[in-house]
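Fill in residues.
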């Protein structure tokens, strides 16, 4: 069968490899669509995390952990899944014609309702991540949120806030790509800020207002209830660190910061404002049941539009081009590979 094989930094080749067999607790999926994730880019560019992200081969490994397809084989211990089922899955090795998936019920294999397309279902994993991140912040009616990073996760956070929290006050999206920001606006962000042109820490208090800090009354803190950091730390970007900006933007005492973006390097931070304002910093990683099922229902009911986020589609033969396009953050949102 054909597969995209990752060998090292910026080295992905489409090759013939052996068709995989399955264990008793697994299914074999004929892959129809597979997304390239932000984490795949850390791997593609820097060679990071490949043991977590690739199905290993004797040489190199097959990336792709968010994909959809048709079940063609079912292991003897697997219950509730049949040959012919259409599924969205989270596993490894999705950038190939066939991928073995060890089934963790309710978690990594979700059956697709008939009205959901393979393309939409390939975006289920990032949506489940966004849903998890959005809810970690405990958003409630009337609050303001700032979402740093209008990639697939940040845009999904905007979608989940819009779909699930009634009467949210303001959602402000910050990114460095005008393209992605206009997408954020389309999906429901009330305000957008291009951080390469304007300082979010100056502009945001003008949008949401600010109030004195209880233990430092000469200082003002913006009325931002939740900051979502869907950027993390990307080496060699000239902009100030998002996590530091998040700390200065969070509201006194009840402000929360949800960190989902990955850090490519250790960073040094001024934590004093976090301590004085008593801000909560919350990590967010992956998702937990029943979030994948909830995410599928958000897609099925059209509470969120995932097709609009798919900016490019490539064949397996064009895997390298697909990765390069996903690296081009200005022009791409979600790139799919369709074996
Ligand atoms: Zn992912």
């Amino acid at each position: 069968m054909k597969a995209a094989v990752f060998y090292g930094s910026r080295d992905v080749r489409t090759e013939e490899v052996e068709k995989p067999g399955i264990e008793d607790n697994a299914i074999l999926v004929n892959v129809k669509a597979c997304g390239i994730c932000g984490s795949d880019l850390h791997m593609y560019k820097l060679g990071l995390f490949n043991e977590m992200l690739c199905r290993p081969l004797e040489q190199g490994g097959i990336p792709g952990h968010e994909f959809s397809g048709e079940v063609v084989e079912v292991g003897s211990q697997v219950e509730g899944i049949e040959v012919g089922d259409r599924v969205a899955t989270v596993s490894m090795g999705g950038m190939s014609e066939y991928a073995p998936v060890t089934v963790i019920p309710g978690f990594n294999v979700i059956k697709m309702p008939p009205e959901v397309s393979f393309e939409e279902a390939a975006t289920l994993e990032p949506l489940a991540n966004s849903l998890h991140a959005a809810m970690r912040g405990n958003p409630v009616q009337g609050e303001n949120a700032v979402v740093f990073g209008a990639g697939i996760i940040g845009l999904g956070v905007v979608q989940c806030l819009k779909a699930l929290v009634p009467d949210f006050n303001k959602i402000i999206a910050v990114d460095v790509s005008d393209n992605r920001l206009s997408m954020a606006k389309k999906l429901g962000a009330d305000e957008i800020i291009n951080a390469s042109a304007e300082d979010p820490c100056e502009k945001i208090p003008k949008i949401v207002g600010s109030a004195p800090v209880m233990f430092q009354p000469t200082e003002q803190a913006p009325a931002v209830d939740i900051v979502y950091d869907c950027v993390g730390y990307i080496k060699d970007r000239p902009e100030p660190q998002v996590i530091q900006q998040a700390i200065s933007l969070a509201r006194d005492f009840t402000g929360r910061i949800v960190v989902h973006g990955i850090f490519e390097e250790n960073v040094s931070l001024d934590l004093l404002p976090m301590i004085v304002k008593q801000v909560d910093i919350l990590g967010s990683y992956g998702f937990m049941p029943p979030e994948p099922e909830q995410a599928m229902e958000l897609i099925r009911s059209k509470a969120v539009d995932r097709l609009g986020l798919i900016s490019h589609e490539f064949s397996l033969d064009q895997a390298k081009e697909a990765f390069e396009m996903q690296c081009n953050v200005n022009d791409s949102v979600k790139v799919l590979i369709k074996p």
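DSSP finds eleven helices and 19 strands in the chain.
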